[in-house]
Each structure stands twice: as C-alpha cells, then as structure tokens.
Amino acid sequence: MSEISRRQFLEFMGRSATLAGAFNFLPGCVNLDKSANPSAPFTPLKPSQKDDLLLAKGFKYNLLLKWRQKLNNQGELFGYNNDFIAYLPFSSTNPYDGLMWVNHEYTDPWLNSGWKPGFTRTKAQVDIERKEVGGSIVHIRKNEGRWSMVKDSKFNRRLDAFTPIPIISEQPILGKKIAIGTLGNCAGGVTPWGTVLTCEENYQNFVGEAVVSNGKRTIQDGDQYLSWIGHVDLPPEHYGWVVEVDLKTGRAQKLTALGRFSHECATTTLATDGRCVVYSGDDSDQEHIYKFIAAKPGSLEKGSLYVADTINGRWLPLDRQKDQRLKQAFNSHTQLLISTRAAAKIVGATPLDRPEDIEIDPISGAVFVTLTNSRKNNNPYGSIMKIVEKDNSPLSMEFQASNFVSGGQDFACPDNLVFDRKGNLWMCTDMSYNPAMQEQYGRFGNNGLFYIPLSGKNAGRAFQVASSPPGAELTGPCFAPDYKTLFLSVQHPGERGHDPSRIASHW
User: Tens of pLDDT along 84-137?
Assistant: First the structure.
C-alpha cells in the first residue's frame, strides 16, 4: 500500500488502523479487500430493498449454520430466529477451535408449526414451537480459511423451552426453584470467567404476564400470534431473567439478582476489586437501563441492582433497605425483583426510547446504549446514548449521559452493537416492517450492518457494510479473538409474509 493510500486508510478507519483481512457472518463469511478502494477500506453500500444479503464491494460470505441443521446424534436441531452470538475458544493459543452460543429468540408459527391465526392451535404445534426457541451450543472450527461446525461433537446441544433450569433466588418463585425452559432469548453477554449470559426478553408474548390486584393474581394473555397459554402451564414469573450457561457442560441457571424485565443484553465488565458489573437494557418504549454490581468476584448470584436516572446522572438503588417506598411496595427483595419495572418507576428512573443493546468502548471505557425508537416521543429513528461513569469506574454511582449520534440521516433504529479491538463501533439496525411504517423507513431500504469510526474526520458517521434480505434484521455481531472474523445472524428474512404462498423473501 502506498504512503498516500495508507494515510487515507488510517484517516477513514480512525482508531482501527490495523483492521483488515477476513470477516465471517453467521450465516456468512466476509473478506475485506483493501484494494477495492484505495481511499477507504470499503465503498459503503447504498440503501437497497433487494432480496439478497448484500455486502460492500470486496466482501464475501458463506453460511455457517442454518435453521433445523442437525447438531448431534440425539436429533437436536439448530433453532429459529438467531440473535445474540458468543464465541469462546478452547485455548488462548488456538483461537480457531471453540464453542459458539446462538440465541433463538421467537418463532414464526406459519413456518415453524404451520399454525395460522383464525385456526385452533394444538398442543402438538406448541411443542414444535417450544423446540425452536432458547439457544444452541455449537462446536466450530476454522480449517483452510473457512469456519464450519464440528459434526457430532459431544459439545453440540440445545437449550429450549423444555429444558429444566434452576432459579437462583433468595426465595422460591411460585413455590419452585426450577423453571421449565428459556425463551424470548434476545441479546446477552459473556462473563469474565467464560460463561455466557443469555437474556429472556419478550417472554410475555409466549406465557403472558402475571398481574396482582387486590391480592388476586391473574394472567394477561400473550401475543395472539405467539401465545402458548392454554396448552402449557409456564408461570410468567419464571421468565424475564438473565440465564447463565456453561457451554462445555450445558448447565444453566436463572440469575434473579439482575432483575426481571425484557432484558435485551447483559454486557459485563470487571471492576478494580475483581467484581463483575453488568449493564442491561429493557427493550420496551419508555423503559430503563440497569446496572448490577456483583457481591463478590466470580459470581453473579448475589449483588446490588441499580436503575439509571439519566437526567441527573445517578444510579438509583433498587433496595428495600435503602428506600422506604420500596419497602412499603414489596414484601421481600424477591418480590421486588419479580416486579423490577414497577420498582424502577417508584424510585424515579428515566424512561427512555426502547433501550436495547449496551456495549463498552475498549479504549475509553465509555458505555454506549442503543435507543432504538419511540412512538410515544415521536422518535422513529432512534439514537445512541453515551454514558461516562465518574472516574471511569463501573462502581461509581454518578455518570454523565449524552447523545452520541441520532438516527434519521445515515441509518434508522440502531439495535445490536459490537466494538472492534481498536474501539470502532459496528451497529445493526432494526426497522419495523409494519406497512404503516414504510413512509418513515422506506428510504433506508432493508436493515443493515454499519461501521462507525469513533475518531478522525469520519467520527460518528455510519457507513453501511451489509444489507439484509427483506423482512430481516442482522443481529448478534461477534468478532472472533483474532478480529479477522465477524459472526452475524440473519434473523427472520421474509417475516412480512406470514403466508407461505406470499413470502416476502426467498433468500
């Protein structure tokens, strides 16, 4: 590379001066060819509505895993609607052999079980759908430049809505310490000790929500298209938690100390005293962002939960012993955790525009939060918030919040984030495909993957790297340890169809 092209390359890439080589998508493998454009690492895509997975010139992809691919000799299959991805190599000396976790968020019944609205849902159809959610553990390996699943590996297995999972709680929840299954699995995180955190988001769509009024508990129905109510007895209080999974053994546990809500993510960092701190967003309009500080190193079973007041820059404790209002509202800490949203509102947390993914800049330590959009606040395009903790400490109770970048120009509806090792931000978008929203989102084309430098003259600008098929969103971006590979999920292509005879995508 000549000196002038190298200078232009560094200027465009900001902190990511060494970023080059191959990128892999899930599905897909992308190779970056710097010679494609001497003044930039790639020529950004323009918005497109083409029925294909499009990549900027110089990139390519290959499929790694796909729906209902056989995982093992027990007949377990790769699930539906991939979301969060984590990759953990077996050894630091060989980053090309390890275990991948993939979330399976929800179903499209017309594809999964054949059920359609207006017809009677059967128990057999519900059982099929319960097998499609949860998560997959997959042994993958890179050979001759290409990643693939290690067939029939002893590590390949599924967790789904049938899997018994212990509930780590001070008190039994509805008299039980074991929940049946995990579902609504959206984003997640990885602990410093090498386990995966998978987040139960919109559990209420499947099992409804429990409401207590005048001492009487009733169940509000779930989403008519997804609801399993009437076919299974799955208490809503057993869902909406962060679930910790050991990929080598498949053992899992539900961590109630982190609160119960529509967890989008569980992003971890280590404090100077060795304790783990977890940030999480509640993916619903006018909900909140949370921080959990573990009680001791190496465990998330106990600790302190806080919710953000972004107006005044304070973390508010959700602790009955520290707030008389909470003590009056809840009989126990377990009851408070079950109703985390209500507790957050009692203490005065700031309502936000759909808090989704949270990631931490590896260079500055700043915390970035995607606020996807808000109908209530007439903010269809969303934004990314930047939080700087006082003294740059995750243990701090004070912070400064500011708007990093707003949607509406280069992109709309930011969702999943990931940083590369040089501190540049990669972002996936999640625009709704409701026909009523096309007037607002049509000019952005299909959802995509964007690259955002955090320094240099292009700092804060979004450059599109990939465009999804119609109806799809790209989710779960995850770099391999050598940063030559980016795994990425392609979720629900053609979702607008809801009818096999009028499917919106054939990708």
Answer: 999 999 999 999 999 999 999 999 998 899 998 889 999 999 999 999 999 999
Q: Minimal CA–CA distance to 237: which of 218, 209, 202?
A: 209
- Residue 97, SS3 per DSSP: strand
Q: Are 215 and 228 in contact (CB under 8 A)?
A: no
Token pair 């430049």 is found at 145
Torsion sign over Cα 346, 350, 355, 360: negative
Contacts (Cβ under 8 Å, ≥6 apart) of 483: 19, 420, 421
Token readout for 352 is: 């936000």
* CA torsion, ordered 478, 310, 399, 338, to nearest 10 deg: -70
Sequence-distant (≥ 6) Cβ neighbours of residue 154 within 8 angstroms: none
pTM reported for the whole predicted model: 0.93
> Any idea which residue has 């710097």 for tokens?
34
Q: Show the tokens assigned to 168.
A: 């780590």
List CB contacts of 321: < 8 A, sequence separation 6 or more: 327
Q: Strand (E) positions, 242-366?
A: 242-245, 252-255, 267-270, 276-281, 285-287, 289-294, 303-309, 314-317, 352-353, 355-360
47 in helix, strand or coil?
Answer: coil
Q: Which amino acid is at 179?
A: A
Measured CA to CA, the distance from residue 83 to residue 187 in angstroms comes to 6
Q: Are strands 463-467 and 185-190 parallel, antiparallel or unpaired?
A: unpaired
Sheet holding 289-294, edge to edge: 267-270, 276-281, 289-294, 303-309, 314-317
> Tokens standing for 426?
């990669």
Neighbours of 81 (CB within 10 A): 24
pLDDT, tens only, 371-410: 999 999 999 999 999 999 999 999 999 999 999 999 999 9
Task: Enter the tokens of residue 246.
Answer: 């050991």
* Cα–Cα distance measured from residue 267 to residue 281, given in angstroms and rounded to the nearest whole number: 9
Closest-CA residue to 256 (of 207, 211, 301, 194) = 301
34 touches 495 (CB < 8 A): no
